Amino acid sequence: MNTRIAYIASNTFREAVRDRVLYNLIAFALLLSGAAILVGQISIEIEKLVVINLGLTAVSLFGVVIAIFIGIGLVSKEIDKRTLYTVLSRPVRRWEFIIGKFCGLAGTLVVNAFFMAVGVFAALFYVSHKFVRADALILVALYFIVLEFLIVCSVALLFSSFSSPLLSAVFTFSLFVIGSFAEDLRNFAGMAHGVSRWLATGAAYLVPNFSAFNVITSIAHEQPVAAQLILQNTLYALFYAAMALSGAILIFEHRNLK
Amino acid sequence: MKHRRKITIVASVCLIVFLAASSFVLHRTDQLRPQGTLDEVLFLNSPKVIQRASLGYDGLMACIYWTRAVQYFGNRHHDFAPSFNLLAPLLEITTHLDPHLIVAYEFGSSFLAPKPPHGAGQPERAIQLMEYGIQNNPDNWRLYYDLGFVYYMELKDYKDAAQAFERGSHVPNAHPFLKIFAAQMAQHAGEFQTARMLWTATYQTTQDEQIKQNAVDHLRALRVDEDVTHLQDAVTRFGERTGRLPTSMSELTAAEGLTGVPVDPDGHPYKLTPEGRIELRTPDDFPFATVGFPPGYKPKFHAMP
Question: ipTM of this model?
């Protein structure tokens, strides 16, 4: 990787750690251990299901919230604090700044997800007293969640490159919600006619489609995930994130920072 | 520094005191208000809306709704509630959110089907739930078994019970007893022996301790039903022969050629009342028995169905 990008990425990571982002791990640990103990007492036969469902949902939601709230400030905060001018006055290109910021945030989320994954497996061991082969499928769900993070980070960065933090948060969160309904959007497009059909289809392909990434429920039931889906989700996440980052670079390159 | 420390101590004490005070007031307020107004309300009752609102995290939502269903049933059951209006919708939402949550079908049908006080007395809803489960999990033979069980035990619909067992017997890796049950339904439906076979099969094929205990309770109750029915028949025969009621259990057993005094599964002898009724000495120990209770008897506790 370009050294300058690596520097920006590592600084972004350190800044996130300094902002006490990883404190969410404490909340996560409390949530998971509490659920693992409580559910056994108030429900019937779903201890393992709850640990997997709750654990992976928390990994996903905590990560998405962090991605949104840090991602939206990555550019605007640097402009407000005027640190961006110091950075750009050095031999750093604007696109390197964007890519560096993206890598730093993605790295933060991967580290966060790693510790949460350790927590999920620990809770699983607590309720099951052993690991079975099917538990390895959880890694696939975690991988898909990380892919989701890449998309959300890139989208947050895209909005952050031209909008205020508040609006960026609203836009990114809205896109996350719409992306969860992307399948419905495509179905609506199928029912429409003429221009509206084209517009709806275009919108359905423009918004990120998160539904294919959500395999938590099926993995909780030990249903395997097709290798083809893993490959296609990987490609989709990479292409979509690259597209959003290209947009962010395009806007940031032409933005008047004076 | 000293001043700061003083403030820290005062603030900490205030925090604890006021938290305790607010909790106390809230507790008192709860006692003032009529209970249960919220219990019978399901603000969102469309499974599709809930599924959409879960933003794809429907597995977790299903676990939450399943826990709600268990808690709802447990609380109503414990309170001797005469109706379980929210149970079926809660189970339908749960299984719609996660159609592969087998435990919701298995336990759900045993919550819904039995007559109150042991269940909601909604065998038709239990059948709907099981059919939905079979539709989504066609390779799970236990669901066919549970469906046949509801038809047999609650509706006494032996034809449909036989059909459910027959359908289940075609599932790959189905337990061989499904074929036997299907045949048994045609010849010996309604007999104690058939019911005993079903509960024994339930006991042998489940890993769940609660289901096992439930099967044991039902098997004990079946034995009581069978014993009391036979003894009551003996009393009738005695009356027809002698023109009077037996004065004691030993007179009855002697007349019937039985050895010893008949005892219930716990070893307590059955009681013969002056009116000629056969009764249990400890009826509370057999919540699922259908005969052998004194007139006007009300159970002191409920067992899970």
Answer: 0.75
